[in-house]
Design goal:
Length: about 500
Amino acid sequence: MRLTSLGQVPADLRPGYDPAAHGVGIVHLGLGAFHKAHQAALTDLALASSGGDWRILGVSLRSPKASGELHPQNGLYTLIEKGAEGTTARVIGAIADAVCSADDPEPVLAAMAAEATKIVSLTVTEKAYGLDRAAQGCDPSHPAVAADLATPHAPQGVLGLLTEALRRRHEAGLAPFTVLCCDNLPENGVLLRGAVVDFARRLDPALSEWIAKEVAFPSTMVDRITPAATGATLAEAATLLGCEDLAAVETERFFQWVVEDSFPLGRPDWEAAGVIFTDDVSAFEAMKLRMLNGTHSMLANAGFHAGDAHVRDVMADAPLATLVRRHLAAAAATLPPIEGIDTGAYAEALLRRFENPAIAHETFQIAMDGSEKMPQRIFAAIPDARRADLPVRAFAFATAAWLRHVSGRTHDCAPYDLRDPIADRLHALAAEQDAAGIVAGLRRTEILPPAVARDDGFWSEVTGILAPMLSQPMTDVIAREAARASGA
């Protein structure tokens, strides 16, 4: 028997409100495990605290898998939170329904354009947007952007859906919804605003001007480690509920959500769930990107090739754990002070999260899409380190570990796929090259900020670290680097 109603759920696992008594006020694009563990779970707490018509219509943009799991369950699913101190669970009622826009975008557009919708939120990953970072606009060569510019009234991509829905609201004389980006991008609201305004300008300059003037794009910072659900996740949910839940998700107990408070049509009482509202997200964002995400990228690229399948395995690998601590300290040293935040305490909290024995977060998964992650997680810190006359060895090691992953070498591991939006270009860059050749090729790409590309001293360190990684076991390279970091 499959989960379809709260009547099947033990009383102590049910939401603290009647979901049927609350209408939909949010459309969420990018219905995945992270959204279910983060925004939907926190909205669930806000509904329990203060009510309101803030339930969510979840939208799968490409694969119908997520919507196919949730729709038959009337949006219900089990959230399993795991920590060293134990496991807790509850059923989330914040998602009212789930649909897939891939075959027919019209129901999604109609929901976004409906007057009841106050917020459209997104977790789609950077590659889905079609951003042109340098121009602060959209990339017309991106497949989804190009297709939606050609058929703007039947869009499939993110920018096309947002623009068409806003156009419909404008024509109907309705106030625009707030666009809430929840992806790991620096100044994500600013970036998405520029892309939507640029996309609309290419179709209708007047609409573009209205969007630029009237639509709120608050920036956010999100944080919660959420591994992909496994058979064990579903089995645990079934044991807890006494029925089958194909949409169950597991996550850590920790979460953080920092949001710029700009919601002209209102928002849920997210403060009641522990959300931080601020006028400036950027400092929190830089802390998270450099300390959590940057360290994650380093340990994932190095750990995968050292045979550490999960983050918790990395932390049980003493030499690599030493480099994790070094990277956290190096990243923290590049940050400006944040009122009320102790970066040393934050680093210790991150170490405990990485060590969490109950969370199986795969290093190979974290290593995906490195070309999009490295600029803000690693490369952005280097100019700040140089200005403060700080060592950059930790960032050089992280860069070398990524390039070793890009190389595709199998001298110390089984063959693997390089999962990256520019995998073909990266393979070409690394093919048959030695460390110096790979580094020289990377320095000619647009992936690097100009100041970093020109930093000869940094790239000399990267080359020196990368060279043995290309032919020797990663475990040996890590051991030598850890000894150096420890002063041994």
